[in-house]
């Protein structure tokens, strides 16, 4: 399963819920305001870091660059571009969006 | 008739009254339209010679983070506009310290000169306004 999240972890609980309910081995793609969850030093960082033990975390690079946080990406997060986004969707049997 | 009001007649009671307006920004840029809309309204307010201040709280602090490059998402990068506010005599920009810290940010990460204030000081600033408009 590919989980796609687009809400800031510090404003909504979508990232939290996704990390709680995604099963081991799943992929999580952070896009739009959810890319803040891929940055280090935030109140949400520890939770995302811990989730990497069971989940593969991706973040959409153009969304990080737009927000000026590309230089703050957390170690272990895989950055993808739009074609990488398409590849992730194609590689996984199904996707779930956390709106 | 008055040039300032664009030809709209204002009675004696309202003419020349300066109120304290605060625009409260609590949303990250680009994911929603709030940040850009707030900026539009702030620029409009500058035309009315009011006592305007901007507050950045919660994810609103992300609006003024340095180094925004929006080419990849095909949206207008409106962040340079915050630096232009000074030219409209809008110089009171307040950022809540606790919001910065929760996001691993410092004043050096911001693209415009601001006053970083703690929650108690921000609360007082809000309380002393005549009008608070939230985005």
Question: Please, could you describe this protein's structure?
Answer:
- The complex is a heterodimer of chains A (99) and B (135).
- Chain A has 99 residues and is α/β, with parallel strands linked by helices.
- Helix content of chain A is 31%, strand content 20%.
- Chain A has a single domain (2-98), classed as 3-Layer(aba) Sandwich (Hypothetical Protein Ychn, Chain: A).
- Chain A has helices spanning 14-21, 45-51, 61-66, 82-91; strands spanning 2-5, 27-30, 56-60, 78-80, 95-98.
- The radius of gyration of chain A is 12 Å and the shape is globular.
- With 135 residues, chain B is α/β, with parallel strands linked by helices.
- Chain B has helices at 34-46, 80-84, 97-102, 119-127; strands at residues 20-25, 51-56, 92-96, 115-117, 131-134.
- The radius of gyration of chain B is 16 Å and the shape is globular.
- The chains are: A alpha/beta (99), B alpha/beta (135).
Question: Gist?
Answer:
The complex is a heterodimer of chains A (about 100) and B (about 140). Chain A has about 100 residues and is α/β, with parallel strands linked by helices.
Report the portion of residues of chain B in β strands. 15-25%
Contiguous low-pLDDT stretches of chain B (5 residues minimum) are none
Main beta-sheet annotation of chain A: 5 strands, parallel
Number of folding domains of chain A? 1
Total DSSP E strands of chain B = 5
Most extensive protein-chain contact, per-chain counts: A-B, 26 and 25 residues
Radius of gyration of chain A: 12 Å
Strand-pairing-aware structural class of chain B: alpha/beta
Overall, the morphology of chain B is: globular
- Write the CATH architecture name of chain B: 3-Layer(aba) Sandwich
Q: SSE order of chain A, as H and E?
A: EHEHEHEHE
- The structural domain count of chain B equals 1
End-to-end Cα distance of chain B, whole Å, is 33 Å
CATH superfamily of chain A: DsrEFH-like
Major sheet: arrangement of strands of chain A: 4-3-2-1-5
Q: Average pLDDT across residues of chain B?
A: 92
CATH topology of chain B: Hypothetical Protein Ychn, Chain: A
